[in-house]
């Protein structure tokens, strides 16, 4: 019997060898596939956790941006009102001086200038901090990454402080230059408009459009008001030549590169449009028809339904700074913070600077 089996095996030896090899190959191939599948699942899980951590950090960073904007509005308002002090003029008017008309003319220019500067500078503040804090946020994410190759932090606290101090340009020289530009445009548009002339909300909107067109078409790029572009100024802001100072200058230059992008111009203009639209919404409250007037107005007619003398519009315009630069979340500030284009741009900035390849910089 055993002899028969042995003869059978010898006759079919090649088949047995091939079958054995095939079965063994399938077994090891299965093991290899299982390992690959396991590795793939582990990588997917790791990537998911990393992405979730990154998303959580980004959302936390946006809340920090919002709180920082609100904390910076009081000093911005103070800087504006110090340079455009309408209160001194209104106090003089209460004394019934002989040059009352002249003071009213000054108040007209100052009030419109103050409010328009408030809209522009608040929009700039929101966008500037979105860019700066998302650049820092991206680097902080990399500093805290498990796989970070470099032992030295990319955004140490000293660098963050130096870098964010560059906002003083917007509250200082940038604001002063913006006031000069805006005041000239306001004078060109309103100097010849008599105080007794009545204006509808639509006409006020037209005046603001003319003023904006002159400002935004000027020789000075609007981003200049946000951050000094002179290399010496950047070095001065960095305050020296230490390693931290070099990193600060690099961050400032990276910020300037962001400002030079077409997307940034689109986002900044979107913020301006949103800001002036909200300003007009605020002014509309003062142009409502009298309570007893029940005549229906079409939406297109409502902007011209009521007219007010310019002398009555001036104090309304003058008081808008309190809504524009309010440290408590007003509709004006909320509109700017919730602007989808600003949020999307902030996400792109964070994505750029939190990407692992930036570790090689």
Automatic annotation (TrEMBL):
Q: Which Pfam family name is an example for this entry? A: Peroxin-3
Q: Can you tell which superkingdom this protein's organism belongs to?
A: Eukaryota
Single biological process term from Gene Ontology: peroxisome organization
Q: Which residues form a coiled coil?
A: none
Q: Which InterPro entries match?
A: Peroxin-3 (IPR006966)
Q: Which UniProt keywords apply?
A: Peroxisome biogenesis
Keyword Ribosomal protein assigned: no
Q: What does this protein do?
A: Involved in peroxisome biosynthesis and integrity. Assembles membrane vesicles before the matrix proteins are translocated. As a docking factor for PEX19, is necessary for the import of peroxisomal membrane proteins in the peroxisomes.
Task: Summarize the subunit comment.
Answer: Interacts with PEX19.
Name of the protein described by the UniProt record: Peroxisomal biogenesis factor 3
The organism is Pagothenia borchgrevinki
